[in-house]
Amino acid sequence: MSEVDLGDSNELWPDANELPAVSRDSFVCKPHPPTKVRVREFYESSRDRLEMEIVAGDEGLDNVIGEKSLNRPALALTGYFKHFGSRRLQLFGAGEISYLEDLRPETQRVILEEIFQKNIPGIIVSRGLYPTPSMVSLADRYKVPILRSRMKSKDFTAEATLLLEQKFALKTNLHGTLLDVRGVGVLLRGESGVGKSECALALIERGHSLVADDYVLVRLVGEDSLIGTGKEISRGFMECRGIGIINVASMFGIRSVRREKTIHLVISFVHWEEGMEEDRTGLELQELDILGRKVPHIQLAVRSGRDMARLVEVAVMVHSLRQMGHDPAEEFNQRLISLMAKPEK
User: Fold this and answer.
1) Among this protein's residues, is 214 annotated catalytic?
2) Measured between alpha carbons, how far is residue 39 from residues 122, 131, 207 in Å?
3) Contact in structure between 295 and 287 (CB atoms under 8 Å)
4) Over the stretch 36-83, which tens digit does the pLDDT of each residue have?
5) Rounded-to-10 torsion of CA 301, 288, 319, 203
6) β-strands 64-65, 37-38: how paired?
7) If pLDDT is split at 50, 70 and 90, which confidence band does 280 have?
8) 175 is catalytic
9) Is 231 assigned a catalytic role?
């Protein structure tokens, strides 16, 4: 079994076209060294959303942002640099700009130069304020870009932190089909031709939603959320063997397609063989590792006469019951134990 390499796509993975081919029979994934996030990428991907423009220091747009949060340099402006977040983007709000404007130009330049010498990746000036002449001069000298936003500092911090969280998130790509079934994100996986797309089509016909078919891009957001999505170019389309490419939204309506979904459950389809072992009780819960996070995993054997779509729906309902603290297999097991513990009459 070979490993699936990590990659990017669209607004979340800018270099998706450079990804190596993904093996259709590979399910193992591993974290990739974090992608370098440059100021240029941050600016170009979010300048409209964050209402930004470049004011100075455009030669430093390739500076690397080292952390996924912003730093307010208020204490640094007073000369206190202990715990200074030099690897972060520096956010200058109304307080910082007003403080600088109250200083004499010579004093202001000395303080700012000490900040610029810390190799900061870039500066954001919020509230539509203008950086001081000393800031502009030092930005060009030290090649540190200054971006100006019309947003308030609080709003900018909230939006920018979310965007940086996405860009710094661990990512991978998997072969499979991701659906939203009764509010549960289900990743169907299995060898090519085992029937994933056909099952997905039956589920969509029953009112569930398609997120991605064949190629699923996964990113780890926060501590535990595995968010799956599809490539922009193929969103809403499926490959149906013998028929070709179909447009799911056109056939079943816009509600049949979702942009992204958290992966809650993985179901693996395997070809049934004579004598193969199948789980008959559900007492032994299995898990699959995706980007270092454990996801509940169920294996279903595909054989003639089985309604795989119905089995997936039942598996989702059982998973939901377990999440609410009701495990049917464990409850039945406790009944058997209680019955066997009763003395014979």
Assistant:
1) yes
2) 7, 18, 43
3) yes
4) 899 999 999 999 999 999 999 999 999 999 998 999 999 999 999 999
5) -50
6) antiparallel
7) low
8) yes
9) no
Tokens of 45: 């991907």
Give me the domains of the chain, ranges plus CATH numbers: 37-166 (3.40.1390.20), 170-333 (3.40.50.300)
Q: pTM above 0.90? A: no
**Candidates 109, 167, 175, 231; catalytic one:** 175
Catalytic entry in 208, 214, 261, 319: 214
68, 148, 167, 196: the active-site residue: 196
